[in-house]
From TrEMBL:
Superkingdom of the organism of origin: Bacteria
Protein name, as recorded: HAD family phosphatase
Organism lineage: Bacteria, Bacillati, Actinomycetota, Actinomycetes, Nakamurellales
Pfam families associated with the record: Hydrolase_3 (PF08282)
Any one annotated GO CC term: cytosol
């Protein structure tokens, strides 16, 4: 297991958002202070999220040295876009034709907005609240986050996007993934219990470690300087890439297997616990006044 860095080390720290940094889309006050203290100690902190840039609010962006968004496909540091990967036009057209043919409730995730067909706002809310659907705070939070940046239009053929999220369809997302071929990878959505007709479809060549690598190269750093924390399926490559990997307790076994450290979840100020253990916080933040 890698040794804990001393307070004189300067690390690049990549944090997943949902389930790691934030609980139901809200960053606990303790985690906000921990990020601030780690930056004050000289570390550079990056949000590394599956959410598109359009769903990362200005308030959240301001708390970090940079953002790796869209599951690694979109990277911004100091206002400069370093990476912006989108679906090729022919693959996008093939996906949209299939989704529309099977009456799918879907969103196209782009840096400027979420795009969907007319009525998708109503369908998302109905799916989240339909009879038999577990009452989970994540469902309401997801609906609210989507509606705040949603644009609906009849013709989506001109939309350039990096990822597709589908909430329901007449056919399974595995069928769509097979239809599109090896360029596309299917992952479960961050909202539980939506079934086989839901999922996130991202380009196979895009994952969080891709965006992290762009940051590391841009800053002239090395992988040994990288710390990463996550809890989801789309965090696997992220943790495998990092010099020090941190998984949230209760994550899937594959993620836990590559973790050097396991931290509590955001409800228990997990980042504060593990950052303190690793010596990442300024002395005042660790010892008090």
């Amino acid at each position: 297991m890698p040794s804990a860095p001393s307070t004189t080390d300067r690390r690049l720290i990549f944090l997943d958002f949902d389930g790691t940094l934030a609980e139901h889309g809200v960053i606990p006050p303790g985690h906000r202070e921990t990020v601030r203290a780690a930056r004050a100690a000289g570390h550079r902190i990056f949000l590394c999220t599956g959410r598109p840039w359009s769903m990362v609010t200005p308030d959240v962006r301001a708390q970090f040295d940079g953002i790796v968004a869209a599951a690694g496909g979109y990277v911004v540091i100091d206002g400069q876009v370093l990476l912006d990967l989108r679906y090729p036009d022919d693959l996008a057209a093939k996906a949209l034709a299939w989704l529309d043919r099977h009456d799918s409730a879907y969103l196209l995730e782009a840096p400027d907005a979420l795009y969907g067909p007319p009525g998708i706002d109503r369908r998302v809310v109905e799916i989240m609240t339909r009879p038999g659907q577990p009452r989970d705070e994540r469902h309401q939070d997801t609906s609210d986050d989507i509606l705040s940046v949603l644009r609906m239009q009849d013709d989506l053929s001109g939309v350039s996007f990096g990822k597709i999220t589908c909430f329901d369809s007449q056919r399974s997302m595995a069928e769509l993934c097979e239809h599109l071929g090896p360029e596309v990878l299917l992952l479960p959505t961050s909202v539980p219990d939506l079934g086989e007709a839901s999922g996130e479809l991202q380009l196979t060549a895009v994952h969080k470690a891709v965006g992290m690598g762009v940051v590391v190269d841009h800053l002239g750093a090395t992988v040994d300087e990288v710390i990463a924390a996550g809890d989801g399926r789309n965090d696997q490559e992220m943790l495998e890439y990092a010099g020090v990997a941190i998984a949230v307790a209760g994550s899937n076994p594959d993620l836990l297997a590559v973790a050097d450290h396991v931290m509590p979840g955001p409800r228990d100020d997990g980042l504060t616990v593990v950052f303190t253990e690793l010596g990442l916080l300024a002395p005042a933040a660790q010892t008090g006044p």
